[in-house]
Amino acid sequence: MCLAIPARITQIDAVGENALVAIGAVTKEISLALIDDAAIGDYVLVHVGYALNKLSEEEAEYTLKLLEEIGLFDEMQDAATLASEPPTGHQA
Amino acid sequence: MSDPAGTLNIQLERTSRGLTCRIASTRPVTAADRFAGRAPAATAALLPLLYSICAKAQAFACVASLEGACGLLPAPAVVARRQRMVSVETIREHLWRILLDWPRLLGEAPDRATMAKILSLVKDLFRLSDPEGDLFRPGASSAALDRRGAARVLADLDDLLARQVFGAHPARWLDEVHDGGGFDRWLETVDTCAARLLRGLIDADEAALGQADVTGLPELRDADLIALIDAPEGADFLARPTWEGGARETSPFTRRAGCGLIRDLTDRHGRGLLSRLAAQLLEVALLLAEARRELATETPEPILPPAPMMAAAGIGIGRADAARGLLVHLARVERERVTSYRILAPTEWNFHPRGILALSLAALPDAADDVLRRQAELLIMATDPCVAFALALSGPRA
């Protein structure tokens, strides 16, 4: 289940290789190596540290609105770690 | 607020009894239930927008579950075209690891230039395979395909992978590397990053790392899946699924375990690192071969999924062989509205706290931090999470 949230580019480094993006309230550093002509303010889909592709503002806002509409951001804010299981390994 | 897509926090700890592994996930596994209240067609259109990393696999499982719940039977040609889109997406996801992550684990630069070309070719294939953008709509009847255009793009992809991954045309690679002997000859003669990584594992005696006793997920009946997902504790099952009391694996390795090459590698090196990474490489070549065959055939022969679930009206199960393993969607539809929607993803099986990755990591021999971290990352890559992960080592070395 690979949920992808549109991320907005907020900063690009001097050589244009890496960027800071905002995903909801989270800021992440990502690589821009796989897309062309990224600019501050563009929306991108992020996949394990890379911008996978650019989204039009319309597409991004539509998806973000959908996320908000179905309350996903609220759920994420409450997301609890599922760490109740004991660790796996050499157990007695 | 954490990363909205969720994170896998993997903690490897040295104890007096050896390594222990703890995996905690913040993935929002019940988020899809928020589609309740929408029309099936709107759900099929919207869901892949949210789950857009493996959007084709998600769209495939989604439309299959909704068609099942609505009693719609898709035409074989439509199913075949949808299935091929999922395969192309799987090729892209495996190449992501092979071109971007495998070099990093060799201390080399990721091959971003090749990956950027692959992303562009895959987008072209998607466009040519679904020119109207309606292939994954419930009840879709057309399966138009620009056969000549798709064949040209596929040929470009073959050429690129011959140079950057296989060292030969992928079809020739499949012919030559059909068993362990052919694989050895390939490792000896080819100098792509993929070959260097796999050869390096054998040379460093790391090929068998990460052996663990977790069996593959068997083919589950629709009724069993519905019972588990729909149970009162269904949300727990979606977060930490088990079958018959144990964690199971669903992955390219379990999908390809019956192939001659993987059988040979498993006999020689066990179910460890080398066999798992080789299964990803093999799957790329096999899926390319299937795509070539389909384009050469006027009437495609789909591998038909199970017939839509008819045991109870209004419930549908959709399954997709996604890049990382079996993806299952369950939809309930009443009076043309979705009333509940659940997704069971392969990452939850494979990164279960007692699953294949946890046991593989705990089976690593203790070593210096840098060695242990590199070997752990190799195993994580071989199991292939679809989200970010954080790996922490703790405890002093004995």
Topology of this structure?
The complex is a heterodimer of chains A (92) and B (398).
Chain A: E1 6-12, E2 18-23, E3 26-31, E4 43-47, E5 50-55, H1 57-69, H2 72-77, E6 88-89
Antiparallel strand pairs in A: 1-2, 1-4, 2-3, 4-5
Chain B: E1 8-15, E2 18-25, H1 40-50, H2 55-70, H3 76-105, H4 112-129, H5 147-166, H6 170-176, H7 180-189, H8 193-203, H9 222-230, H10 234-239, H11 252-256, H12 260-269, H13 273-296, E3 315-322, E4 325-334, E5 337-344, H14 346-350, H15 356-362, H16 369-383, E6 389-394
Task: Provide keyphrases for this structure.
heterodimer; A: alpha+beta; SH3 type barrels; 5-stranded antiparallel sheet; elongated; B: alpha+beta; Cytochrome-c3 Hydrogenase, chain B; 2 domains; 3-stranded mixed sheet; 3-stranded antiparallel sheet
Protein architecture, described:
The complex is a heterodimer of chains A (92) and B (398). Chain A is α+β, with helices and mostly antiparallel strands and 92 residues long. Chain A has one domain: Roll (SH3 type barrels). Chain A contains two helices and six strands, in the order E-E-E-E-E-H-H-E. In chain A, strand 1 and strand 2 form a beta hairpin. The longest helix of chain A has 13 residues. Chain B has 398 residues and is α+β, with helices and mostly antiparallel strands. Chain B has two domains: 65 residues, no CATH class; 330 residues, Cytochrome-c3 Hydrogenase, chain B. Helix content of chain B is 51%, strand content 12%. Chain B has 16 helices and six strands. In chain B, the strands form two sheets. Chain B has a three-stranded mixed β-sheet. In chain B, strands 3-4-5 form a three-stranded antiparallel β-sheet, sandwiched between helices. In chain B, strand 1 and strand 2 form a beta hairpin. Chain B is globular, with a radius of gyration of 21 Å. The two termini of chain B are 37 Å apart. The mean pLDDT of chain B is 91. Strand 6 of chain A pairs antiparallel with strand 2 of chain B.
